[in-house]
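Troubleshooting entry. Yesterday's outputs looked truncated, so today I'm pasting the complete records for two proteins to confirm everything comes through intact. If either block looks cut off, that's the bug. Protein one:
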Amino acid sequence: MIEAGIIGGAGYTAGELIRILLRHPEVNLNFVYSTSQPGKPVAQVHQDLLGETDLKFSGEINKEADVVFLCLGHGNSKKFLAENQFSENTKIVDLSTDFRMAANDHSFVYGLPEFHKEKISNADYIANPGCFATAISLAVLPLAQKNLLKDELHINAVTGATGAGTSLSSTTHFTWRDNNFSAYKSFEHQHLNEIGQSLKMLQEDYSADVNFIPNRGNFSRGIHATAYTSFSGSPEDAQKIYNEAYSDAAFTFVVDEDLHLKQVVNTNKCLIKLQKFGNKLLVTSIIDNLLKGASGQAVQNMNLMFGLDEKLGLDLKASYF
């Protein structure tokens, strides 16, 4: 069994990780470390787990764990690893932004399985992609892979309230978020850096603008992203490119149906739809921000790192109701 630990156990992504790992057939959840909740039952914070586990939050870490997931606030993973040493055999999956840019630490592999499966399988340290970056990268990277991005990219994406984490702010209170919609960090969102990095890795000469407008939706979870750019090929050409790109993808599917979030919420899936309008290709991409955009993808990466079927423990089902 893989002995797993979670650092920063009280947040949304940690809650999803706990739920998945408790049911994973090859994992024993060894500890869930939290500085704010030590000694408290995990199910008291993550109440969907009531009746399922007697695990308590720990104030100590197991330095010999086989894999550790870092669910800390951005900037805190680097600090934690500088202050806490794990075994040389411990694998690490970081869910923050701290190691996503290649310049930050070359030992961390960017964990987007659809495009880096071999590197992930041989890695000891994974930088798990951001939620917006996952949805958007999966929407546009097949074009970059074929050197077919010839123009600016225009992206509009909406995320649910859980994308902001558990810390309260003026824009996460129910009275503000309910029946409301707003844009934020237009053209400046932090995930633009990792999207740009991924594009350059596949199409080195791409230098056009990536115009990204992120939005807050009045729902709890999920990301609905649309991206469009110039494309001279036919709809059939686009379909072939994307089908080839995701022919062996475990969770990413190119579909013909119109997309909506209930098709992916509570799953590790990414669904993609292609449409051609004049000389523009419109790509729609949907994911669950807490699963394919965070914890589900983290477990998918862990499976690859340990030579397991990447789907193991991730047979999560969407529910319309």
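Protein two, checking that the full record survives here as well:
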Amino acid sequence: MFEDPLMKMWVSFIGMALMTVSVIVTVFTKEKLSGFLRYFFLTISFICIIISGIIIVLVVFTGPAPE
């Protein structure tokens, strides 16, 4: 799936960025929002963490880059 090691690096960075976005959105939402907006942003945060988990699993299980 990832033949280019540089592409694999960028995809893993995207996964880590999504995790960071998820944490920041969750903390902000729990502190500042209520009602519909709170559940909307928590849903977005949950989707970000699921996508990042899938990305990280794909990166880890594709193994080391070919020599």
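Both blocks look complete. Sanity check on protein two: The mean pLDDT is 90.
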